[in-house]
Structures are given as C-alpha cells and as structure tokens.
C-alpha cells in the first residue's frame, strides 16, 4: 500500500453533475469511467482498497490517528462511500461494492464509528454481497471482523442473520472458507444473545434459530475441511447456548457428546471451555444444596441400626468422630443447656456452651421453645422470664452477655454466636460484615472466615477460607467446612478464568492455580472427613469433574482411574439415604452424571475428531484464518492490522479476532499461590527481602515470618 500522503496519480472525484455521477445526501460525486476499469483490473482486494483509499483521499485507517480524522470528517467520508456504493450497485460492479464494504469493516474497529455505520444501514449493504461468487468471502470476512470488534447491539443485529448464514453453509458445503467465516460470525454474534446471565429476549432467541445453528455447526465440524480456527469458534458457539437454550442442546445429542469429547483434548483451556458449557447446561434443573434437619429422624435411623458395612466404615474411621454421633450428642447437649438456662437464667454460661456446639457440628443449633401443657390439654409456649421465647433467638442475647465480660475469648464466642444467628436468619451480608470485623480483631477466629466465605464474591471467599485453614485450634468441623467452601470457590474461579482466557499469560496461570487448589482440597477433604459427612457427595462430584478437566487425555477411555471415587460416592449415597437426608440434584451432581453417562459415547463418536483437533492445535499457524486465495489473505491482514501510531503495530493485534486459546503449562503454578495460606491469585506481593515468597497481604507475610526469616536472611 503506498505511504499515506503519496499521490497515486488517479483522477479525484468532484462535486458536480453529470451522467456518470451518483447523488448522496444532496451532493453528486462524479466517478470517472476509468476508475471502474482500475477496480476491475486490481488483482487483489488489498489493491482494490488501496485504489479506493487514494481516490477518496481517506485517512490511514490502520492507525488510531487516522481513525480520529475519520471521526472529524465522518459526514463527508460517509457521503463519499455511500455515493460510490450506490454507483457500483447500479453498474453491478461487485468488486467495487466489496472494497467499500471492506473499508466500512475496517472503520468498525472503532466503537463509535461502528455504531454510526450500523445506524446508517451497514448490514443491509454487506448481506447482499454474500450472494455473489466474487464478493462472498469478502462479505463474510467483513462480518467476521465486525462481530469481533462489534458491541452487543451490532452483534445481535448480525445474529438475526443466522438463518441466512445457515442456508449459505448448506449451499456451499464444500467451501472451507464459507464454513469457517460463517461459523466465526455466528459464534461472535450468537454469544451476544445467549452468553449473558440474564435471560435473553424470547422473540430474539426464536429469530436466530438456535436449533438449526447448533445442528449445522456440529455437522460442519465433522468435515475434514474444518479448520482449527473454525472448530475453536464452534466450541464457543456451542457452549454459549447451553445456559439459556438447554432443550435445544438436548435436542442435538451429538452436540452433547461433542462437548464431552472436548474433555479429552490436550488443551486445558479447551477442556475448561467445554466443561463450563456442560455445567451451565444443568443450571435450570438443579436444586440448591439445603437440608432441613430433623433430629427425630436421625434418632430413628440410629435406632433402626445402620447396615453392617456402613457401621464397619464408621468404626474404622472412629465412631465418636463421625457426624452422626457428633450431631446426636450436640442435640442432646443443646437441649440440656436450654433446660439448665431455664432454671438458672445464666445467659453467659449458655452462650459459652452454644459457641462450643456451633463449632462442633453443622446442625448443633435447632429451633425450639419452652412449652407446657395448657388448660385445654394442648402444649403452649411458656414465658419463663428469659428475654427470648424461640431458642435460636437466644443467640444475640447470649452474645451480649459474653461481650459484657469483655475477655478476648468471650468476645470471640460472642462473634461466633452472632455469626450463627445471621446465618440461620439468612442475613448473609450482616454475617460477612461481622466476620470481617471479627478477623480484624482476632485473625485466629476461624469460624469468622467461614462466614466471610458465604458471599457471592469467589475471590474474597477463597482468600478468607485459605486464611481460616491456617488458624490454630481449628475444630474438625470448621476445617471441613472451610475446605468445602475453598473447593467450591476455587473450582468456580478456575473454570471461569480458563474459559474466558483469550491469550497466554497470568490469567491462564492463575486459572490453573485455582483448579489445582480446588483439586488438592478435594483430595484432602475426602481423606479427612467422616464417611457420613453430608458434603462428601458434593466434594466427590467436584473431585471427579476436576480430575477429568485436569488430567484430560491422560485418563483411560473407560475412566478406570475414577473407580475408587465412584465407589466412595455410592457409599456416601447409602449413608445419606440411611440417615434420611435427600441427595439433592445439585448442579455439580447433574454435571458429573451427564459427563460420566456420555463419556463412552463421546469417545466412540468423536475420538478421531479430537485427535485431529489436537494435531491442528499443535501447529504454529493454528490460529490463522484458513487461506483460500491471496486476495482474501491480503484483505484479512489489512482488516486485522491496527497501529498505536504511524509505523508501530499494536502488540496482540496481528489477528485480534482469532480469539486464540493457546496451550498452557501446569508448571510454575506455585508462583500464583500465597506462600503462607496457599490462596491462588495473580496479584500477590513479593517478599521485599528475598523476592522469592509471595503473599496475599501483610497479615499473611507476618504470620509466615517466623518460618521464613532464616531463609530470607540467608538469601540476601
């Protein structure tokens, strides 16, 4: 392309009247006959664009400074392009129309310019060109670039053209470029409709014809001509549909086995992308993991006696340490404490007992009341002079009595009581706020970290439980609860971080650290927790899913490595049924069942496909769009390129719409884990002395200092 400012010697357009002119917005631009010949003789799209830019005296569209000039001259430039397009349309000069569309697509790299062009009907000018053999690839290339740069409104408008693109692919099944660019365009556009948490507009979902899009996409990725670039975007398209269109996904059985087969890819990011889609598929039919505790039901189960093989497991673990035993004992201790308080009205003593019970087992504090037989023979609530009637209302009153004593241990117990009260009443924001104040006062209060972890912020919750796990005097129950929360927070963070990764770097390493942290904690939990722990099911679901995601193709096709975990899961189910707890259809349970059910079918149906995908993935040029002609390649390179200023190419924008998912290593994960508490993060502070250790904050560094000081001083 000639340097900007250099004259090409071609005739310039002028505003006047004439037979070969074209009118736009009241102005007529005369187009010399020789200009059309220049366009016809241009060998590539890049040369066509060069001729157009010189003829129209456009700023350099490859630089930000040039795009700024387009902003200033938008009205005039828009008139020129519109006039030229209309003239080309009248004469049937397809290549000229295509070149103008290429310029518009390049301008769409700027969000404001893109919105203005869409308001002026850009899409109506691009879509007709896909019908012409000479401009089909050009138009699809433009749509692909626009949807990459495009905002939500632009992408959704293009998504409305899904039916046209599907028919286009059906009509050109053997054209790899058509299949690739149409798939990429639909992936970008459809995700703008379906890729958000909020439910999409029902009418729009119907209009974009999700079912036919999914079916066509699955059929096309099977073809030997499917490029890595196309397959990679097909995965994004398929996974974007699972959250809000689960029925359409289930109506495409091969799509589900395809997603499961991606779990055997050598690329971890690919595996996590597929896993994220499978998890979202179950979101609308899952149940929350909540249990209503009935002590009488538990007592009845114990009286019936456990099956012999379950009793043996409890004895091997330690009967007195099992959750069933601890829960029954805590229930009795709780009732005795309440009766004693009814007699002596000692809220301080009651508070100390309740704080101990809360940290012993999950269902230690149940609702109850003081009752006696009334005049009519019915049991009625008694007023015995205490400031509470319902037993759970005793918690804040006991906390007040403990705080009145003022000793640090008493204040700790008061915080535990109030935290439990807020949790029982589902006042989670209040529990989090109190937990944060409590750990500022006493960083060793483990139960406060558990309360903080109940928030929706995964990173805040994970940081809290990792600190809590390092506390001294941690009860087994609190430790298991902190591990449970750590697994759920880190697992969610790992999958989402790697699923959203677009390029190599810290985000990828951080995502791996999250996954590895969750996986390690699942192994710790299942090794330490009693066999009748009600969260064992949840943790084993996570363990199986994470093992498949992390190990990928290292696992055998029949998943024999997971046989022990599956047996343990079956034992846990038997315990829950015996105790009387309902095994909920949680999201992770449904996901685990789906994966294990489809895994053999996926291996058989898509095994060869995944091997081919991994071969393509290993090539250095895997993310380059598929070549068809030099003309297409030239224009694609020009559309992709943008510079910070004249002569300086912006890093990472060689192929900005490639949305590359590079393979990443499991090594060096420790660089993203706090040396003290193990919390995964990309924003850890290095030790100022040795620069080797990393910490969440000054608190973690201070706690690690007694261990680290010798090493730190030695390294100086």
Describe this structure in words.
The protein is mainly α and 716 residues long. It is built from 33 helices and 9 strands. It has a 3-stranded antiparallel β-sheet with strand order 1-3-2, with helices on one face. The chain has a two-stranded antiparallel ribbon with strand order 4-5. A two-stranded antiparallel ribbon has the order 6-7. Strand 6 (643-645) and strand 7 form a beta hairpin. Helix 2 (45-56) packs across helix 5, helix 10 packs antiparallel against helix 11 (176-194) and helix 13 (210-221) packs antiparallel against helix 14 (228-240).
List keywords for this structure.
716 residues, mainly alpha, two-stranded antiparallel ribbon, 33 helices, 9 strands, 3% strand, elongated, disordered N terminus
Q: What's this model, at a glance?
A:
The protein has 716 residues and is mainly alpha-helical. A hairpin with a 7-residue loop joins strand 8 (685-686) and strand 9 (694-695).
Give a short account of the largest sheet. 3 strands, antiparallel
Mean pLDDT: 85
Helix percentage:
55-70%
Task: List segments where confidence is low: pLDDT < 50 over at least 5 consecutive residues.
Answer: 1-27, 502-506, 644-658, 664-671
Number of strands: 9
User: What is the global morphology?
Assistant: elongated
Q: Structural class of the secondary structure composition? A: mainly alpha
Termini gap = 56 Å
**How much β-strand is present in the residues?**
under 5%
């Amino acid at each position: 392309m000639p340097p900007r400012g250099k004259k090409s010697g071609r005739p310039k357009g002028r505003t006047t009247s004439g037979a070969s002119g074209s009118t736009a917005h009241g102005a007529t631009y005369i187009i010399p006959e020789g200009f059309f010949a220049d366009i016809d003789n241009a060998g590539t799209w890049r040369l066509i664009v060069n001729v157009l830019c010189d003829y129209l005296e456009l700023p350099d569209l490859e630089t930000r400074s040039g795009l700024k000039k387009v902003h200033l001259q938008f009205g005039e430039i828009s008139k020129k392009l519109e006039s030229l397009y209309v003239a080309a349309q009248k004469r049937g000069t397809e290549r000229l129309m295509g070149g103008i569309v290429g310029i518009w697509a390049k301008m769409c790299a700027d969000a404001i310019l893109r919105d203005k062009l869409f308001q002026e009907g850009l899409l109506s000018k691009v879509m007709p060109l896909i019908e012409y053999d000479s401009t089909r690839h050009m138009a699809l290339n433009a749509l692909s670039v626009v949807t990459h740069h495009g905002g939500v409104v632009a992408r959704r408008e293009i998504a409305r053209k899904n039916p046209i693109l599907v028919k286009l692919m059906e009509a050109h099944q053997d054209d790899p470029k058509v299949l690739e660019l149409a798939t990429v365009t639909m992936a970008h556009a459809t995700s703008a409709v379906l890729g958000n948490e909020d439910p999409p507009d029902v009418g729009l979902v119907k209009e974009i014809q999700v079912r036919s899009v999914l079916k066509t996409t699955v059929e096309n990725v099977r073809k030997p001509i499917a490029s890595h670039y196309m397959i990679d975007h097909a995965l994004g398209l398929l996974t974007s549909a699972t959250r809000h269109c689960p029925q359409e996904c289930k109506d495409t059985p091969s799509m589900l086995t395809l997603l499961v087969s991606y779990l055997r890819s050598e690329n971890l990011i690919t595996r996590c992308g597929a896993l994220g889609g499978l998890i979202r598929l179950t979101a609308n039919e899952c149940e929350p993991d909540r249990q209503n505790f009935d002590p009488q039901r538990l007592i009845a189960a114990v009286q019936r006696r456990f099956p012999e093989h379950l009793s043996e497991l409890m004895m091997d673990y330690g009967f007195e340490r099992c959750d069933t035993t601890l829960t029954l004992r805590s229930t009795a201790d709780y009732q005795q404490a309440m009766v004693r308080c009814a007699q002596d009205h000692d809220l301080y003593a009651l508070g100390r007992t309740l704080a101990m019970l809360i940290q012993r087992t999950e269902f230690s504090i149940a609702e109850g009341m003081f009752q006696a037989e009334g005049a009519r023979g019915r049991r009625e609530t008694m007023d015995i002079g205490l400031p509470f009637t319902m037993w759970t209302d005793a918690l804040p009153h006991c906390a007040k009595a403990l705080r009145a004593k003022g000793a640090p241990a008493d204040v700790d117990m008061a915080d535990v009581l109030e935290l439990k009260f807020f949790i029982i009443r589902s006042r989670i924001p209040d529990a989090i706020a109190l937990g944060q104040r409590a750990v500022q006062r006493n960083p060793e209060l483990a139960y406060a970290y558990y309360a903080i972890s109940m928030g929706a912020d995964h990173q805040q919750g994970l940081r809290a439980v990792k600190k809590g796990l390092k506390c001294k005097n941690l009860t087994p129950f609190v430790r298991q609860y902190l591990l449970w929360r750590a697994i759920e927070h880190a697992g969610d963070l790992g999958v989402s971080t790697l699923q959203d990764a677009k390029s190599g770097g810290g985000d990828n390493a951080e995502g791996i650290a999250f996954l590895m942290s969750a996986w390690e904690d699942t192994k710790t939990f299942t090794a330490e927790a009693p066999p009748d722990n009600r969260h064992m099911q949840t943790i084993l679901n996570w363990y199986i899913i994470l093992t498949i995601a992390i190990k990928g193709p290292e696992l055998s096709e029949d998943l024999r490595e997971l046989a022990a975990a599956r047996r343990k899961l079956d034992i846990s189910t038997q315990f829950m049924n015996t105790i009387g707890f309902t095994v909920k259809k949680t999201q992770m349970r449904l996901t685990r069942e789906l994966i294990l059910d489809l895994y053999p079918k996926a291996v058989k149906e898509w095994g060869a496909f995944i091997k081919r995908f991994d071969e393509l993935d290993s090539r250095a040029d895997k993310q380059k769009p598929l070549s068809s002609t030099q003309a297409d390649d030239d224009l694609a390179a020009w559309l992709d390129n943008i510079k910070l200023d004249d002569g300086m190419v912006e890093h990472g924008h060689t192929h900005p719409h490639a949305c590359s998912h590079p393979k990443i290593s499991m090594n060096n994960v420790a660089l993203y884990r706090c040396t003290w508490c193990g919390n995964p993060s990309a924003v850890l502070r290095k030790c100022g002395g040795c620069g080797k250790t990393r910490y969440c904050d000054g608190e973690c560094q201070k706690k690690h200092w007694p261990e680290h000081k010798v090493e730190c001083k030695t390294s100086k």
